[in-house]
Amino acid sequence: MKSPSDDIPPGVKKRQLALLGQQIRRLREEKNLSQEQFAGLAGIDRAYYGGIERGERNVAAINIIKIADALGVEVGKLFPPLSTLRRALKGGHDERGAAS
């Protein structure tokens, strides 16, 4: 069975951030909003927001709160299940970018 972490593009150093971005993208798409529309609604720069969805940004807590508020969900809903994040950690990279 395919897991969400199978969809992470090669070269993404922080697999957990990519999974977070995928979850946020899924929630945004459920609202039928473009990235540009949603970034405006959340009060976040569109390019920065795109980086969040691609897993390129380590999102500040204040922006997590803005995203949750704009989506109308609790902050915890933005995060994939912990078991998925743990699997990604085992196959991902550590803080220095070294293979784990």
Instruction: Please identify the structural class as seen in this structure.
Output: mainly alpha
Mean pLDDT: 84
Can you count the beta strands? 0
Oligomer: single chain
How much β-strand is present in the residues? under 5%
Describe this protein's structure.
- This protein is mainly alpha-helical and 100 residues long.
- The protein has one domain: Orthogonal Bundle (434 Repressor (Amino-terminal Domain)).
- Helix content is 53%, strand content 0%.
- The protein is built from five helices and no strands.
- The radius of gyration is 13 Å and the shape is globular.
Summarize this entry quickly.
With 100 residues, this protein is mainly alpha-helical. Helices cover 53% and strands 0% of the residues.
Topology:
Elements: H1 15-30, H2 35-42, H3 46-53, H4 61-71, H5 82-91
Helix pairs in contact: 2-4
What features would you highlight for this structure?
434 Repressor (Amino-terminal Domain), mainly alpha, disordered C terminus, 100 residues
